[in-house]
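Alginate export protein
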Amino acid sequence: MKKWFLGGASFILSGSLLQQHCYAQLSLGAQLRTRTELRNGQGTPQPEGATPALFTSQRTRLTAGFSAYRIKLGLTVQDTRVWGQDASTINRTTTPDNNGFMLHEAWAEILLTDTIWKNKSLSLKVGRQELVYDDSRLLGNLDWLQQGRRHDAAVLKYESTAWMIHTGVAFNQNKENAAGTIYNPTPPGNYTANTNGGNAYKSLEFVYASRKLNKGNLSFLFFADQFSKYHTDSVDHLPVKTWEATTNNRMTTGLFYTQQFNRMAYTASAYYQFGTNANAQTVNGRLLSGAFQYSVSKAFSAGAGVDYTNADFDPLYGTPHKFWGNMDYFYVASGFGNKGLQDYYIKTKLKPGTRWALTGDVHEFYSDSEITGMSRKFGTEADVTATYALTKIIGFEAGYSHFWSTASLASPTVKNVKNASANSNWAYVMIIIRPEFLIK
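Structure:
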């Protein structure tokens, strides 16, 4: 939309400057994503004879964006639920523990430099927002999960043709306190506070710097998150955590590198984690990864890679589903005994046309720590995924995964599943409808 103000001092402005200050753009969008899943050991092996789970979940999002001279606004509201979790005649949306309606994003980004600056900018983004950097291994929006991930934060951004430097902070509180800053990190309802099932952070700070290279990119991350300390009291002979104002401080730093050379694409990353985690344990964590993908033709590519994490490393607030197998056995809510992980994998992709794509991956998983009296091998996973774009706004996706697990994976110090099945599988079908509108 364009608006012209014809009063007072506006007459002294040139036509071009007036148009620059008064030009605005509104965007509206929606997303309806339904996913039907057959789970027979997804996340962790099931005992022999257990009945598979079958259900349909749905994510409904409404988005709005507004941009004008030196400001952008973003808003996303979403509802996530399983079909049938609410009675058809109930007079409220859902039970409190399963409430899936929420504000996913609500932010404003203010351009601190004038628009006359070319190829560089300094801006401040404040509010509820997604933090997505590099390959989303440590900081991502976890889009596969229906409810996704977001942060209440402020991020100062400097960006130029070659550089991107972001620094961000967040400070969480449960309510408007009259005094003190004690934070209870236990999430309400039936949701975990983060991917790995732990408590929410009380605060975080980070610096991210990225430098564009010739057909590549090199980035540096320093990330610190603080967790409320606690002591345990006995209430009615049961242990109860009492949260304190002081915090445990954990820090993560490292590099991410990606490069394209003719038909070969390389990625590598190395991170070190230190300090004290949410359970007051000293951390000495390491993550190393490297991979390549070779384009055999325009339609087919294949590659291989390896990931290594030791027992102390926690992959922060990333997207595990993207890296450690589609069945989410590792670094998701179902733990695996803090053993660390070695993942050796092969990935292939076939894209015969603009609408179709087919991927096939195989992972070999090993524990990085000894498992008393047992092999370190956790098992083998095979993932196949197909996507089809019916139109620009309508897409279909389907996948099948199979996990051949070992006795080590089900052992008491790892997944702790008695009489576990050695064969697990998971299948899904997903429909994604995503219309977008632009109003000028």
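The helical segments are 15-22, 407-410.
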